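Sorry to interrupt, but I need a hand with the structure work. It will help me judge whether the discrete encoding reads sensibly. Write everything out right here, beneath this request:
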Amino acid sequence: MFQRMLLGWVLLLLFSCSKKAELPTDRKPNVIILLADQWRAQATAYAGDPNVKTPNIDRLASQSINFRNAVSGMPVCCPFRASLMTGQRPLTHGVFMNDVQLDTNAVSLGKVFAAAGYRTGYIGKWHLDGHGRLQFIPPGERRQGFQYWKGNECTHNYNESVYYDNADSSRLIWEGYDAFAQTEDAIGYLTQNAEKEDPFLLVLSWGTPHAPYHTAPEAYRSQYDSAAMVLRPNVPDQMAGRVKKDLSGYYAHATALDDMVGKIRNSLTQNQLDENTIILLTADHGDLLGSQGAYKKQQPYEESIRVPMLYYVPSDLGGKPGPRNALMNSEDIMPSLLGLCNIPVPETVEGMDFSKDILGLEAIQDTLALITCVQPFGQWNKPRHGAREYRGLRTLRYTYTRDLNGPWLLFDNETDPYQLNNLIGKPEFASLSGHLDELLSRQLQETNDAFLPGLEYIAQWGYPLDETGTVPYFH
């Protein structure tokens, strides 16, 4: 069965791929994707956060290509993950809500790498299956081309975390804090595959620093004093006590993951894989954590949409470390990794290949990124939170968004980095607002986005909703 599937993927690639990176080496490097859940770009020491301790990630950043303006174009879990897997925008792959299934016929990351001769592995949170958050995902099409599997759909119980071991349908529990056990399993995968001839793609998908914020091991929680937390200026005074407490737990999770990054890198060195392995460190979206008086994600503010985006490419593979200003978006990750590995990019992909920029061969002057909310739901829904559909642009300087009624938000992120001054409706900024609105209209036209009310897209895709506009899920 698997051989027939693999042959189908190969044929699909042969007949649908036309874009191939012209890079200086034919080597196919290993790839590790380190994916965190809800880690905002601002919450690392290298990005300037005065509270958090991330020495291993800081070191990685100093040796990596840092897309410091990277965004999660639809800043919520499943839409990002589907864009990562397909290189497509949410209205194309259809996963614009949580807890719905990515099309099992999608031309996806695992399938394309497998067809190119890679061994593929996935460890941790998946959240692309839509059949229940703790249910078994059988081998085959629902795993989207990943062969080695220690995964689970979704859980936020990080100390009694469910997973499934490859083809075994028995419900298992990671021992202790799941990020530690998942990382140890990843290290085992690296060790087992170190001397094999074929390269590998491994995704290590951690559930933290997503809430609940206070469940990291005590050794990490004890490193942070909530009273000493320095808040961002856009956190309202009346929320200060709660936010300081939650930040201390959030940072404890972050520092625990930082140690895991160090372990992964040590394992690469010990297994002599460090000179032929690309590392991508990123997150699916951020967390407002009190900024703008709100928590979690979906909203178009910096703390929600901005994510870490570090590409470590060894010097032997041509990596040119340093900051990049280009606005890499979620759908750009797949084609960029394929470009770095000399694998043709399928025609189904909508994202941009940044590999030549990563390798210092050609600067990418991508100065805007689309940000989207098709149908607000869950923690930011219409009935309880006054949420709204929106489309917007993040440029190098500005954030502009439009809701269904017209212009909504305009921030100058250079003079107002905490987005405290909405410029919409101010006569002196009318020309700027009009220019950005025109740019947005052009982007929507180019991407075939009619910007309809969310319920119209829900009807097109046939998703069930509860009274809050959320796809209901079960465990």
Notes: DSSP finds 14 helices and 16 strands in the chain. The first strand starts at residue 17 and ends at 19. Residues 124 and 151 are 5 Å apart (CA to CA). The two ends are 29 Å apart (CA to CA).
